[in-house]
Amino acid sequence: MSHISPGVPMAYEDGTVSQVRIDYDSGERVYLQIVRIIRDMIINGELPVGTQIPSGAEMKRAWGVNRLTGAMAVEELRKAGLVSTKPGVGTFVTGAPARNTVSLRPGDQVTSRMPTEEERVRLRTGYLTPVLVVTRADGQVEPYNAAVTVIRVSS
Fold first, then answer.
1. Which pLDDT belongs to residue 56?
2. pTM here?
3. What string of DSSP letters covers 73-122?
């Protein structure tokens, strides 16, 4: 029997509501699930720049997670350049990375790995997001942030 939090509605200023679910049996750390959920909501435009995200205490009330778990999630989002915290005010979305579509051609290869420090900063991956490395048929190597990159295979 899977232990998934009930869908917790997150309401936004524009009136939209999204259900957030934490799966405690998935094997993925809870704070990483929160990071992924909030990051995806930022990327998809559900949390636009300037929107306040839940505090650790609000995450505890809404999702039943430890305040430290919420704080760890916020710290990862901050490291990725997606949010900033104003002491005594809250944590707000400060950046929304654009989706990137990469077309593959015959002979190209794709691998995945954790980023180098330089790639982490340049691609704004944070510490938990891998990079997709496209090696073109001519040997050119192109790293991309896996969180915002879609690979399209051309024939």
1. 77
2. 0.67
3. HHHHHHHTTSEEEETTTEEEE---PPPEEEEE-TT-EEEEEPPPHHHHHH
